[in-house]
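Quick question, first post here. What does this chain look like in 3D?
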Amino acid sequence: MTIVSRIEAALGQRPLALTPLHGGCVASVDRVDMPGGDRLVAKHARRGGAATFLIEARMLNDLRATGVVPVPEVIYASDSLLLMEYVHSDGRLDGAAQDDLARITAALHNISGDGYGYDYDTVIGPLSQCNQWNSNWREFFRKERLQNMSAQCMTAGRYGHEMNARILAFCDQIDVHIGVKKSSFLHGDLWGGNVLCAGGRVTGLIDPAIYYGVDEVELAFMTLFSSVSPRFFDIYGEIRPIEDGFFEKRCDIYNLWPLLVHVCLFGAVYLPQVDHTLAQYGC
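> Answer (accepted):
Ran it through. Tokens below.
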């Protein structure tokens, strides 16, 4: 069944036109023009891709339910198709939009849970993200993030036992390097590509990988691909002060997690950054 026919079966109306949009590493993404002038976004799995649309829809609904984050409304979700509200974006995460993003991110992080994890396992891209509740942040980050993703990298053949052993050795000393903070609701995959904006405002956050973690994990990821300028952190820090030592010490540690995700998805091009961080700590 074609994507047009699947949309028609889901909504009872046949689309007038589909226009390809920029998509992620798993799904094809199209703008859908419907009769009457409505526009939607359709995500559908590429050939051979593992669809995680039901989990993505659930995450979008949970993120939207916080009331502090602009999130596209989910119209329809199945194993093979996700239909969402179309949100306009001019693609410019400029100064004003970054200020808005800082305020939105701080408001999201002000939502706290009773521990670290989530009520169900989520995904980051196509990869499983284990969220078993834990009252100990260091243990959660060590086990559910670094050790779990390193195991996924091994399974995917991205590296061998030597690199895995270095990751595990670092995990053994992690208690010395990161502290304990109150949990925060995290988008989980917050970088410039997942921020829709127009006219100096954030119009939507997409592709979440939600869980309750520590705000510094999210802030660290914002530095990894230079998604934002220093002003973002200034505005954020006026609302939620950033603790001393984050940029100098903990930022690189927390970025081990998204770097391992990228190694698992895209291969060895990201391994030098992993190697550099581990070497700083004698691993």
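Residues 3-85 form a domain with the Phosphorylase Kinase; domain 1 fold (CATH 3.30.200.20).
Residues 185 and 212 are 5 Å apart (CA to CA).
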